[in-house]
Amino acid sequence: MESAIRDLEEQLRLAMLGSDVAALERLVSDDLLFVGPGGATFGKQDDLELHRSRRQKLSQADWEAVSVQARAHCAVSVVTAALSGSLDGAAFSGRFRYIRMWARLGDAWKVVGGSVTAVAP
């Protein structure tokens, strides 16, 4: 199961990088709770709208390290990433760490929760 979550993390990376809303729709739970780098909480529709509107544009999303702890119906991933792009027209670049909670919902794995924070260089 750990390899399945690693594969899903790669699918998520590519979806984020390409603002692939259809892929994000498939990978993210309708009930997502996500804490952004500024501490605000977001849901699935908030995330999809960032990509749909192109308010967030990633030009780089390189996963530097991925660790996964998996159980029967849930998993936790920690991803360290080098990201760059823009958010609401303001450029950003740096290293970030995501923690994501994955759950088996029906026949598919989906992100149900997580957060991202900047990592000091």
From TrEMBL:
One Pfam match: DUF4440
Gene3D superfamilies: 3.10.450.50
Bilayer-spanning residue ranges: none
Domain DUF4440: 5-111
Protein name per Swiss-Prot or TrEMBL: Nuclear transport factor 2 family protein
Organism of origin: Luteimonas notoginsengisoli
